[in-house]
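Extended Data, panel c. Modelled sequence:
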Amino acid sequence: MVEFKFIFDFGSPKAYLVYNMVPGIEKRTGVKADYVPVLLGGIFKSTNNVSPIEAFKTVPAKGKYDDLDTERFVKKHGIDFNFNSHFPINTLNLMRGAVYAKENGFFEDYVKVIFKSMWVDNKKMDELDVIKTVLEENKLPAQRIFEGTQDQNIKSKLIENTAKAVEDGLFGVPSFLIDNELFFGKETLQDVEDLIKDKVDRL
């Protein structure tokens, strides 16, 4: 069995772009991805990393090129995408919600709804009333999720996921671990798929 982990935080636009590509990799390789919610801010703090927005402040040309690269990627793959005008968004409650959803049987729907709200619908997803409305409109159990985000076991699990990601060498998202081999960013998607196919062929 090949282990295929997709490590993400809803606050990363690149994680959203990659999220749209993972189902194709799963279909072509026959290997299902294990989605791992982490807190990107915690990873940055532990690794002394900074967000691309901060990094681009000193080299504006990088930011301009990054926008162009994103535009090309979105067009090539036909992805619905709007850069969130409220960026950056504090995703602590959203990521705790993802952990809760994963443990309670509606993870796939939750992830789809939150990513769309963030990177298509331009919602300010660090306001509780906005989150509540989004969840209710999409028939997700808002009250249960809110209660779940305050559960110590859920909080601890997100902390554990984030710490494990750092231990595994992550410094940002989107990242992949293929049998513990790390890949970072959307530029590695083909390499990820090729390695999975190679491992499957060897089984």
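The mean pLDDT is 97. This feature is highlighted in the accompanying rendering.
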